[in-house]
Amino acid sequence: MTEARRADGAWLVVALVALTALPFEARWLDFELARRGLLLVVAAGLALTSRRWWPAQLPRGTMLFGALCVWFLVRSIAVTNTIEALLRTAYAAGLWLTFVWGATRPPAALLRAALAVGAIVSGYGILQFMGVEWPTGYAMTQAVSTLGNRNVASEFVTVCIAIGLVAATQGSLSIPGAVAILPCAVYLGINGSRAGLLATAAVGLTALCASRAGRPVASITLAAALLGWLSASLPDDARPGGAETVVVEQPSTIAVRQEIWSSCATMVGDAPVFGHGTAQFRYEYPRYRSPEEIDLSSFGRQFATFVDTAHNDHIEVAVDGGVPALLLWIAFWFVVIRPRELTRARAMQLLPVLAFLILGCARSPLANAPTAMLAFAWAGWLGHGRVDPDGAGSKHWLIHAGGVIALFLGALVVFAQHQIANHFTTPQSDTGERFDTLTSAIACHPSESRFRQLRVLEARRVEPDATKTLSASRSDLESIARFDPNNTNALFLTAEIAHQAGDDETTDLALRRLLTIDPENPRGTLLAATRLCTRKQVPRGIATLYARPHASLRRDLASHLSDLGGAVHASDPRGSALLVLEANYIHALDSILENPKSTRVIDASRMPAQIADDRVRVLYARQLQARGKVDAAEALVPDRPLDLSNAARRLLREVLAALRQLPKWREAIGD
């Protein structure tokens, strides 16, 4: 690799990669979306200058990935969110252009870009870990670096390390390059992403075992591995404290991914040929989301969550585009990887692609613009194209037109994120400015439902009258229902505001939709029960609460029943009394579960009046059993079958399990 080729176009590549990876605002709502917009801007620049660099010979796989982009365009028709589908298609086309452009770049240029930008990203992440805060207000508790997300940052750094190892295996890695790999390894360990560590280990071991470069490559690889391991082993209390993280990525687990992938298998089975539409995973997945995955992702529904990727690029391609898209995707990479000649050097050149594909098995680097740009540019270089200013011939006008469109779309996406950042940094007292920034963001990116949810919440904050809030927000709520109809957070927000405003029709529609998608949703269940109780249908309201007592709802069930009793006391005294009675029953049950021997759970003097309720009979028998009064407990067994509904049996499951130890009760309880 000559010095002339090493320098050829290197700083241009560094600048373009840096443009996608380094700019950020601490308050961007979606860092990955903003960076996809930045990549569109970069792709526009490449398209508008295509006459200067277009290769005479397109890299292998160009037609296959182009066909995939066309399929993505076709699958943007008649889908849930067409605008997002078209944006993702434009992004895919930008990656296609990056792939072709990469065929004209010398490996030295790609190497310099990867190591220079990777070192900056890693260095900033290390500074975050050390407690350095810049700019003011940006989070320090996680080393998210400029990518705004720990896992996304690890993906980028992993591919940078893989590119560096290619140079090391060929003996062309300079001392500055070797030095640049070390902070990347340290940051990867601090970051702690298992997918990144696994991919780095795979490419590192491959380089170590298969390289002929000998001691230098072994030294670099082992030093990087040692630093990464030491960084990853740092205890949590060694990490400096800081402000709350702006972008919180909940810890991913194998169990969460298994649940997501299981649901994805069902999604592919439901639409195997055409898929659910380009970039529609986020909008269609809620209908397939399992209760187990929701609980795992939200730590028992302690906060609202949504899943925007399948955490597996290969599966997500199949979900969005069906089996045809998956076959094109596999065929593309097969052609890229398939060597023209089986040489050790060629095998080592595949390390960045290997890292990218391994990451794609547990993460979504395809949607991570800086990572995907590096990987696709490197894959294009593997095709060994050569520059020919007239290579595209008469097609340049079409490429230029696409560049103009990409520039327009990318600028809108980035500006929308910028306006959202302004919204978050504007004082709450400046209501007009906060609304203006949201309105500008929505005008630039009308299909992003999160922007509209923010405007609804802002209207709710400044307007105490629920009727006026609903009136002001109705257009946004209708747009959310059109662009993101399965968003359970938005559905609950709609139902709650409509309920407070007295719009029964809107409330019932939103609640019905919410509980169809997520039957165990605790907030939706409580609101549905509340509406029944306020309509003097207290028994149905209680049955609704008991039918799906999710753990987070069950935990405060006695308080919910008591609050409902107070809320309907004036309009329905009898219903209020029933709710209070049920609250006392749940309180008694909770007390027994906490301490079966408690003497104050049920007053024995009131038993004759309460004994008709078999639920109370069961509770009292359990108390007697726990105190060793087995005969007295057996005496409470009724001569008739226990009158317990399925909901009551679910609530009393632990108590009934204990009573089954007594022969008479075991017979009375039955199966």
Brief summary of the model shown:
With 671 residues, this protein is mainly α. Helices cover 68% and strands 0% of the residues.
General description of the model:
By secondary structure, the chain is mainly α. Helices cover 68% and strands 0% of the residues. It has 35 helices and no strands. The protein has helices at 3-7, 10-21, 31-48, 50-53, 62-74, 82-102, 107-129, 150-169, 175-191, 194-210, 215-232, 254-270, 281-284, 291-297, 313-337, 344-349, 351-359, 369-381, 396-425, 431-444, 449-462, 466-483, 488-501, 504-517, 522-534, 538-547, 551-554, 557-567, 573-594, 607-610, 614-626, 630-635, 646-651, 653-659, 663-669. The model is unreliable at 1-7, 236-251 and 604-608 (pLDDT under 50).
Structural class: mainly alpha
- General shape: elongated
The overall strand count is 0
Mean pLDDT: 87
Helical amount: 55-70%
Name the beta content range: under 5%
Distance between the termini: 77 Å
Question: The biggest beta sheet, please?
Answer: none
User: Oligomerization state of this entry?
Assistant: single chain
Low-confidence runs = 1-7, 236-251, 604-608
Rounded radius of gyration (Å): 30 Å
DSSP summary: helix tally: 35
Topology of helices and strands:
Elements: H1 3-7, H2 10-21, H3 31-48, H4 50-53, H5 62-74, H6 82-102, H7 107-129, H8 150-169, H9 175-191, H10 194-210, H11 215-232, H12 254-270, H13 281-284, H14 291-297, H15 313-337, H16 344-349, H17 351-359, H18 369-381, H19 396-425, H20 431-444, H21 449-462, H22 466-483, H23 488-501, H24 504-517, H25 522-534, H26 538-547, H27 551-554, H28 557-567, H29 573-594, H30 607-610, H31 614-626, H32 630-635, H33 646-651, H34 653-659, H35 663-669
Helix pairs in contact: 2-3, 2-7, 2-18, 3-6, 3-19, 5-6, 5-15, 6-18, 7-8, 7-9, 8-9, 8-10, 8-17, 8-18, 9-11, 10-11, 10-17, 12-14, 12-15, 19-20, 20-21, 21-22, 22-23, 23-24, 23-25, 24-25, 25-26, 28-29, 29-31, 31-34
